[in-house]
Amino acid sequence: MERARMAVRVGWGALVGAVLLAAGLSRTAAAEDTKIVVDGSTTVGPIAKAFAEHFMQHNPGVKVTVAESGSGNGAKSLINGACDVADMSRFMKSEEFKAAVERGVFPVAHVVALDGLAVIVHPSNPVKELTKAQVADIYMGKITNWKDVGGPDAKIVVVSRDTNSGTYEAFEELVMKKRKMAEGIEYVGSNGAVRQRIQSTPGAIGYVGLGFADETVKALKIDGVEPNRDTVRSGRYPVARPLFMFTNGYPRPGSPVHSFVTLHLTKKGQEMVEGIGFVPVTDYK
User: Fold this and answer.
1) Mean of the pLDDT values across residues 115-144?
2) Which domain holds residue 123?
């Protein structure tokens, strides 16, 4: 069901893009010839930054700036005309679409990568896997000690992304099923902050985008499946999602914005996505 929902969202975003292109709702050439402003998700941020560095090397007349204020703020920036590209680790909400259209903005989704939400713990923690139900119970406060899931007799320190984050909303939908999280959970502002808290706290648990699950933390199997490129791409990993860049209308083909948001469809773009640790939508050999 979750995979089907993801597919519907991705397909709907692509359909919107095609319709808007056919309707001639592409961006004008105005300021995009010299500057591209990107804002939004801290998960998509590393992809955007890698793309920006590569793009400016090959297009010295164009400056690309990337901010990481969260998916919700990225949507607001696009709606308010403050950015050209909104990075989002979730699909745009219906109320955001409504607000955009009311202001003459026509959001188009570009799926730049796939991502698995990795549930991470300190490397010293002997626990190797949890079920999705166990993770939900931990975040709801029903399980509070590691011994209840095969670990040491130690309190579980529960860390979450902030509620404005697309990563939080994906976790809330895919794992929590909209059930309320317990009181006392620590909320932090970025994937990097979650990882840092886990690195320094043996009893902690958190969740991050796949690209942030490095050797300094331990990524747990969920329902017996490891979070990696193959399991995310195949749909076997149960906590996965697409990552988006949204633009106002379909960018004019050949424009800097168009070239930027379609970079993921090139071999170099695929290599960058893979190098960061996410799953590319292409499979060039």
Assistant:
1) 97
2) 116-234
